[in-house]
From TrEMBL, chains A, B:
Catalyzes the first step in the biosynthesis of NAD from nicotinic acid, the ATP-dependent synthesis of beta-nicotinate D-ribonucleotide from nicotinate and 5-phospho-D-ribose 1-phosphate. Belongs to the NAPRTase family. Its EC number is 6.3.4.21. Transiently phosphorylated on a His residue during the reaction cycle. Phosphorylation strongly increases the affinity for substrates and increases the rate of nicotinate D-ribonucleotide production. Dephosphorylation regenerates the low-affinity form of the enzyme, leading to product release. The lineage of its organism: Bacteria, Bacillati, Actinomycetota, Actinomycetes, Streptosporangiales. Residues 21-145 form the Nicotinate phosphoribosyltransferase N-terminal domain. Pathway: Cofactor biosynthesis; NAD(+) biosynthesis; nicotinate D-ribonucleotide from nicotinate: step 1/1. It comes from Actinomadura algeriensis. Gene3D superfamilies: Aldolase class I, nicotinate phosphoribosyltransferase. This is Nicotinate phosphoribosyltransferase. It catalyses: 5-phospho-alpha-D-ribose 1-diphosphate + nicotinate + ATP + H2O = nicotinate beta-D-ribonucleotide + ADP + phosphate + diphosphate. Residues 343-374 are annotated as: Disordered.
Amino acid sequence: MDVGEGTNGEVTAAAGRGTALLTDRYELTMLQAALRSGTAGRRAVFEVFARSLPAGRRYGVVAGTGRILDAIEAFRFGPDELDWLAANGIVDEPTVQWLEKFRFTGNVWGYPEGECYFPESPILRVEGTFAEAVLLETVVLSILNHDCAIASAASRMVQAAQGRPLIEMGSRRAHERSAVASARAAYVAGFATTSNLEAGRLYDVPTAGTSAHSFTLLHDSERHAFEAQLASLGESTTLLVDTYDVERAVRTAVELAGPALGAVRIDSGDLAVMARRVRDQLDSLDARDTRIVVTGDLDEYGIAALAAAPVDGYGVGTSLVTGSGAPTASLVYKLVARADGPDADAPMRPVAKRSSGKPSRGGRKAAVRRVDPHGAAYAETVSTGEPAPGPRDRVLQVPLVRQGEIIGREPLRDARDRHARAVAELPATAVQLSRGEPALPTEFVDDGPRP
Amino acid sequence: MDVGEGTNGEVTAAAGRGTALLTDRYELTMLQAALRSGTAGRRAVFEVFARSLPAGRRYGVVAGTGRILDAIEAFRFGPDELDWLAANGIVDEPTVQWLEKFRFTGNVWGYPEGECYFPESPILRVEGTFAEAVLLETVVLSILNHDCAIASAASRMVQAAQGRPLIEMGSRRAHERSAVASARAAYVAGFATTSNLEAGRLYDVPTAGTSAHSFTLLHDSERHAFEAQLASLGESTTLLVDTYDVERAVRTAVELAGPALGAVRIDSGDLAVMARRVRDQLDSLDARDTRIVVTGDLDEYGIAALAAAPVDGYGVGTSLVTGSGAPTASLVYKLVARADGPDADAPMRPVAKRSSGKPSRGGRKAAVRRVDPHGAAYAETVSTGEPAPGPRDRVLQVPLVRQGEIIGREPLRDARDRHARAVAELPATAVQLSRGEPALPTEFVDDGPRP
């Protein structure tokens, strides 16, 4: 597939800006040194994993896989990038020449998007020469650390909402491009819609919206504002009722729209009390099908606290795009095995640093979700040998890139469906909001020094 | 200036992807309703401010202004955007036609980039028709909420470092594009360098880097790895010494590089203890000018705790790009005044919502930083009338866009210098890391109903 063509929105968009400089400088200087020392061509295996989940979280959610595939495809050094690298002395001329021809030709395996993960789960594995695999470190981690953090928070909110729809509306509280990725990640985790139009265009996430207080204030009266909105958007629209006085606004809204009014939105006050009052008022006005949408600094705990309130939908902003206290997933990208020499058949050797505090396990790893006869997951097994899944177990890593060719693309809807299944399979404790241990234990099976 | 030409990197880059759909759906549906009700052309004044600073913070830092100007310039609805809006029924045909011709023709005033701000400081003011000003809401807030959050955290780290240089190296912990903006914001706040190459290319932020554990592990021994790095990057490079055994690594490093070795990096362990040991060892090896750079989950508190340690530079990652506990600045974009009718000379009226919990003050506001004869700032005055600055006071809002023309661009270095001056002028309590009240009180002068 040519970059800039094809049907994938992000690839087309990315053609305007490559991803190759979304990279830490040291990746390129390490490349230069390795090219010179003759080690750049050694085969290497890098793995992405989290040493732990954010404090108290019971599972993580893999998201961003599709965006990584787009980023790998767009990872080319064009004339602009190369000129800048050369002019600023970032790397030497032989390295510039190497980068000019660079295209990732390795293999990538990973947990499919939407899957759950746990501490030490090897959620992505990049195999290639050291040179080509080290270059992807920064952009791969950027995407996964962001998107997994957002999806992991979003999934808790979806669980807390117990089937009521969630609108993602945090774009204004996040960097303008991370907002688009957040909307995508929230959709994978089960949000119904997003306010973000670019997420609609790039990723086909369903979009939704209501109106702002400024729209009411623009008009000479709330009545005029409601009339204007109804005339333009129809009676199924959502009217914002808390600019002045909620009770008066609800009365005006139903008077103008009739009982077929789609919904009202409450953005302030004690949402449980307000929702109860508004529900009673709507019912008394025979607007029994008019829904109540609540917004205003909601997070998973605020959503859960409204479980008994007559609420029909939640809008979530800040807490979603900031990962509800865990804005990054703390995933790392570690060299776990490399060849002893430059030849393609040189033996592979597991490697790991031994410094204090941050130990890691060497060797190329496989992972299996253990599932009992009742369909309940009970363990995550990580092994350095070939996986030996039982009849209901799921081998977790799937091929995403084969010899440089992207083979792992899928509709976003598939990731969303997969996530719903993966959470349903976890022990019931997984969806408790209280702080706890990971819902599944990670078990290691060390099959010895084979990488 | 034509979008896609000119010397500004971000504008050129933005040409590949416009900013018009980095917008919440409701902005466009409110536009549609206002076009139909005849209120879209009413003159309007929107202001950006924070109701409060993040808990315990003593000042905020304005950052992102330059990026907002680029985003406004690139805010056009091209055929791709319009086709998508029409095909998906987001807005009706008259609105699509209006958007096709849209270009922002209003005025923007704001605190210059790098300036400090406090609760209720009107850091940006957008004036135009309601239609054109409401459309900018999402992207303006996205940029400011992100960049101000990062710069505000970065400034505290700079103060904690007391003159020692800081390297921004958080790209891998943030969305790949917010990483670039974070590097830019950190530079405004006083960071010396960034690891992010795209920030170097787009914004001329100086870049820096060391090497990773993977580079050492790639080689047959640490000695081979150091030899390779020194051969390629020279003796002024920074060698990472904690892959295996720090003491042995330092000995090997100085043996290979000689006393002119640029620096060593320590990424794990008790950094204060390790730095002391490594300093003693380096001195005993006569490598007295070899610097020590420390990294590893540092935030402003960790930096401050190392004040007495022999550290020559800090690398900061996660805590920087996540705003060190405050990943968004909680800035809002509120309609504060609008015309009574459609004519250009219709009288302006201050407006504000009256719902519970989130009151706001109507009326177009001016702001002045009050400065005493010793050059010390002592108050932030916000008034609905014209400002009346004393001889040393500083009028805070400057023109950024005049009738749609971008007039507020400046070199990023100017914002960085401005920030250093603005912090130096604050009371000494401002730079304490402990939780406290805003360093300056915000005083309101209400000159009555004139907007």
